[in-house]
Amino acid sequence: MILELKNLKVLVVGVGGLGCPSAWALAGAGVGELGLMDYDRVELSNLHRQILYSPREVGRPKVEAAREALLARFPQTRVTPLAETMDAKTLEKYLPRYDLVIDGLDRLEKKFFLNDWCVRTGKPYVHAGVVRFEGQVLAVEPGKSACLRCLLPKIPPPFAMPTCREAGVLGAFSQAIGYLAAEEALRLARGRPTPRLWKVELPGFKFRSLVPERRADCDACGRGKVAELSAAACGAEG
């Protein structure tokens, strides 16, 4: 996939601590169109890591506030707010409109849900995750590179692992992972040869990268058979 940035359409799912810096970086790079999917509202306790919002916007839909912030700085980018829950219905509706996807979700089980849909539809995407002092970013080209299920074959049950809101995270660290996810998305758009997995650890800022192997028995990309998650796995994000 090689596209000029002005023609690139990116869907950011989850406009919180990861999605906010990703969307900002993509708009700043000159991406032509951004879709922002998140049905949650701005909360005061999240402002330290969600850089598109301010205290006066507490209570507003995130996607509306994010759209205004992005257009105020980058008016050349078309921004579409999608104040909807991520589920099978919304992904079926919106995924075909975009060239690639950024996973800015919080819950791990929902990340798997998005992974499965992107793999099933052949949509390139970038997974990003951060909890406390650990973060990771994985660019995925379905059918060519390893997906999230290749790394973690067994899905934890809903709410088994804490979110960054529950476990805590440094705002600047969350933003760094979000910016890295945006850079990986841009590299996908430029047709880079090999998607990589990036692992970042604090303290010490240990930075590692590797090329993960696709698993032949992967339920998503190995057998071409995607395991289903319950609709209950798809709730508020950010």
Structure commentary:
The protein has seven helices and eight strands; from the N terminus they run βαβαβαβαββαααββ. The two termini are 28 Å apart. The chain has helices at 19-29, 62-73, 88-94, 108-121, 148-151, 164-167, 171-189; strands spanning 9-13, 33-37, 78-82, 100-103, 125-131, 134-140, 197-201, 206-210. By secondary structure, the protein is of the alpha/beta class. The protein has an eight-stranded mixed β-sheet with strand order 3-2-1-4-5-6-7-8, sandwiched between helices. The model is unreliable at 229-238 (pLDDT under 50).
Fill in the keyword field for this structure.
alpha/beta; 8-stranded mixed β-sheet; disordered C terminus; 7 helices; 238 residues; single chain
CA-based shape: globular
Mean pLDDT: 87
**Which regions have little confidence, pLDDT < 50, spanning 5+ residues?**
229-238
Order of helices and strands: EHEHEHEHEEHHHEE
Structural class comes to alpha/beta
The share of residues in extended strands comes to 15-25%
Give the radius of gyration.
Answer: 16 Å
Distance between the termini: 28 Å
Give the number of helices: 7
Major sheet description: 8 strands, mixed
Strand order within the widest beta sheet: 3-2-1-4-5-6-7-8
Number of strands: 8
Query: How much helicity do the residues have?
Result: 25-40%
SSE map:
Layout: E1 9-13, H1 19-29, E2 33-37, H2 62-73, E3 78-82, H3 88-94, E4 100-103, H4 108-121, E5 125-131, E6 134-140, H5 148-151, H6 164-167, H7 171-189, E7 197-201, E8 206-210
Parallel strand pairs: 1-2, 1-4, 2-3, 4-5
Antiparallel strand pairs: 5-6, 6-7, 7-8
Helix pairs in contact: 1-7
